[in-house]
Amino acid sequence: MRKIGLTGGIGAGKSAVSELLVAHGAVLVDSDRIAREVVAPGTPGLAAVVAEFGPGVLAADGSLDRPALGAVVFADPERLQALNAIVHPLVRARSAELEAAAAPDAVVVHDVPLLAENGLAPLYDRVVVVDASEPVRLERLTRLRGMTEAEARSRMAAQATREQRLAVADLVVENNGTRAELEQRVEELWERLTRS
Length: 196
Known about the structure:
Number of helices: 9
Strand order of the largest sheet: 2-3-1-4-5
Largest sheet: 5 strands, parallel
Shape: globular
Distance between the termini: 11 Å
Structural class: alpha/beta
Radius of gyration: 18 Å
Oligomer: single chain
């Protein structure tokens, strides 16, 4: 089994790369998706969040009210730490389950947005960074995600710098061009991941 950490700044195209890798046969472990699963209605994770933060973090339908929770935790680092202490172990456990279920010869791609920020590079056999220039990322965030330029810049500034991400990279997928160019780069990446 090859454990690959995949990361990239917002707007770089990490999701597109993970989709293309899955099309080549990779097993995807998506940290963001798992983080949502472990606090879905009826889960012990959601019960623990409500026990810690109170019923005000629930929406009318019983699901987690992410904006309400965000207003609490992003204003107070200690409360954010409390949330992370609940969610991160659940995400790690579920990620380990998904990895264990993969075939022994699988390429398991862990899509981890905050890989560089959280010092997770040593957990993987290789780290792949999807890289795009700041102007390209800004254009994607404003055009494709409907953010204002100020919102996009704020989100970008909250993440690791491009230099910090590149410093942990074993392989870099440049994504400033077309979809066809990206497909070619991912095909080359897949060959490298499965060859060595």
